[in-house]
């Protein structure tokens, strides 16, 4: 069985699958937390910089997963941006009550995306 994906970075299939799953999870968690927990909490949970970051993180994670699924030649560039945005989102969420699930999802996604970059 070939364990190397036929992709621009020659990533092991298991690493790419894990990254796709982490990106999709992060996308769902960030969107759900923003639309439910943050809107219900109000205050700093809906401060424009934080709320925008959560929505952009959700969208970027979804687009990054789609790029890997499509074997898009520039998926590593998206992974690089996704890793950075997830780091920022985790840091922003860490400062707010009840955001542990978002912090966890963002941290896992950031690490998975960073692992997709060429060494």
Automatic annotation (TrEMBL):
Residues 10-40 form the 4Fe-4S ferredoxin-type domain. It comes from the Bacteria. InterPro entries: 4Fe4S_Fe-S-bd (IPR017896), Csp_YhjQ (IPR005560), YHJQ-like (IPR044543). This is Four-helix bundle copper-binding protein. It comes from Steroidobacter flavus.
